[in-house]
Design brief:
Elements lengths: L7 E5 L4 H12 L3 E6 L10 H6 L7 E3 L5 E3 L1 H8 L11 H30 L8 H21 L12 H11 L12 H11 L7 H8 L9 E3 L2
Parallel strand pairs: 1-2
Antiparallel strand pairs: 1-3, 2-5, 3-4
Length: 225
């Protein structure tokens, strides 16, 4: 695929793992984009302007060069993968296995890992809060599912890197910050190290160190990483 005629616009909050995964994918593909900061804690996703882009009132949102918008982080990953089909296989069964992990991420993994992370890091709730305890228990069960796969394979879907790995990476990588014990999951730890050793792969910590708070970078143009 040729480079897009105009840079994408990524409406995102840098504290969000769902936004980070899109930012990471754009960088891995070396696609030009403009970051537009949206502060979810200030309810900037609930303005009339934002709700016209995404009636759900959530980030990320990717505006295409055509002016159309695309929501849902995993849908955006699949769209961006057209610039390098390596990331999203076309063979039906292999593609379905990638989708299987993307659905798992949004249904079993993200609600618990991301939910616990948000409540503890940004709402200041204690890790012994009953709701957070429940999310951590369910999150450990989701991590155990990943461990079953990664104890025997290098990547989640097939034997090569795909958007499934990009999708599951952010909140798995930050899980210890929210009270999850990755010491129980050597396969996951090896997978994280494998991803972070790849060229152009950045962590959320690297994003913060490289650019500071992107909340202060509204409308600044970024190209790749």
């Amino acid at each position: 695929m040729p480079q897009p005629a105009h840079p994408f616009k990524l409406y995102a909050d840098p504290r969000s793992g769902n936004c980070f995964k899109v930012w990471l994918m754009l960088g891995l593909l070396d696609l030009p984009f403009r970051w537009v900061s949206v502060d979810i804690l200030r309810r900037e996703t609930q303005t009339a302007e934002f709700l016209r882009m995404n009636p759900q009132g959530i980030v990320p949102v990717l505006r295409l060069s055509s002016g159309e918008t695309l929501c849902e982080s995993n849908a955006i990953l699949c769209y961006l993968a057209q610039w390098n089909p390596h990331w999203f296989p076309s063979e039906p069964l292999n593609q379905a296995r990638v989708l299987q992990w993307l659905f798992f991420e949004q249904n079993s993994h993200e609600p618990n890992l991301a939910g616990a992370h948000f409540m503890t890091r940004y709402l200041g709730r204690a890790q012994d809060d009953p709701e957070i305890v429940g999310r951590i228990e369910r999150g450990h069960r989701a991590l155990a599912v990943m461990e079953q796969r990664l104890a025997r394979h290098d990547y989640l879907a097939g034997e090569t890197l795909t958007v499934a790995d990009v999708s599951l990476y952010p909140y798995t990588g930050t899980a210890p910050d929210a009270g999850f014990n990755l010491g129980r999951f050597p396969g996951i730890r090896a997978w994280l190290a494998r991803l972070e050793a790849r060229p152009r792969w950045l962590t959320i910590a690297a994003l913060a160190a490289s650019h500071g708070s992107l909340l202060d970078w509204s409308k600044r143009v970024l190209h790749g990483v």
